[in-house]
Design brief:
Layout lengths: L28 E7 L1 H5 L5 H7 L5 E5 L11 H5 L4 E4 L6 E2 H7 L6 E7 L2 H9 L9 E3 L21 H13 L3 H19 L8 H7 L8 H10 L1
Parallel strand pairs: 1-2, 1-5, 3-5, 3-6, 4-6
């Protein structure tokens, strides 16, 4: 049996803990991750990179498919705090850059991220009416994700750690946050590619090239086109 790291729970030869920030990232707020149970089971999840890369108590992870529920102690109270935003693109969302310009200096804030596949995230948001009362924010238009070992819906979709890091860098007006928090992700991808993983193109590109092997329904196709 392979020896695993107690922190990241990865085999020691592919442990990314040494790539975490020397000094944990500290922000004037909290990151609240709502994680789908299937995402919790994934070996290549990025939520723990945020949890271990930030000051204790500033990144909180709650598990489930509907939020908040009775098992999520303290979550409802946090979601009711002023300046709490859910990072979820949509017609009602505002660019987080605009939010950062109007956010009162020195005031705390909460950023809520839904962690799962895009279809899971969509379902979790739909089945969590409480989240609908929170202001929606979205990220500026982006380039390809660094998470090259996992297929993204489109080239503009980012992993949880990338999304959170970019959102924090904008709210804190500190670009160095991104490099500090995505360093373990770069290491993870390097390890996986070294041991046989291959780089993944996004689903939209694969569909356009006729190389996506799984059956795609009309609703899924429409959703993928919307994220492109």
């Amino acid at each position: 049996q392979r020896t695993s790291c107690e922190k990241c729970r990865r085999p020691l030869r592919v442990c990314w803990c040494s790539y975490l920030p020397d000094t944990p990232v500290k922000i004037n707020g909290k990151i609240i991750i709502l994680q789908h149970p299937d995402e919790e089971k994934r070996n290549l999840k990025t939520g723990p990179m945020l949890f271990h890369g930030m000051t204790s108590g500033q990144c909180l992870i709650f598990y489930g498919k509907k939020f908040p529920s009775a098992k999520h102690q303290g979550l409802k109270e946090m979601l009711e705090e002023p300046h709490t935003y859910v990072l979820y693109p949509g017609q009602q969302s505002k660019c987080i850059t605009d939010i950062s310009h109007t956010h009162p200096q020195g005031e705390s804030y909460n950023l809520v991220l839904i962690d799962g596949t895009w279809q899971q995230a969509k379902s979790m948001y739909f089945h969590s009416p409480f989240l609908h009362s929170l202001p929606q924010v979205s990220l500026p238009e982006l380039g390809p994700s660094l998470y090259v070992i996992r297929t993204q819906p489109s080239e503009y979709c980012l992993s949880t750690v990338e999304s959170a890091a970019l959102a924090m860098s904008i709210m804190e007006k500190d670009k160095s946050i991104v490099d500090k928090l995505v360093h373990p992700l770069k290491a993870l991808c390097t390890f996986q590619l070294k041991y046989g993983a291959v780089e993944h193109q996004d689903k939209v590109t694969l569909l356009e090239l006729g190389q996506y092997r799984k059956p795609v329904g009309k609703r899924t196709m429409k959703f993928l086109r919307q994220t492109a």
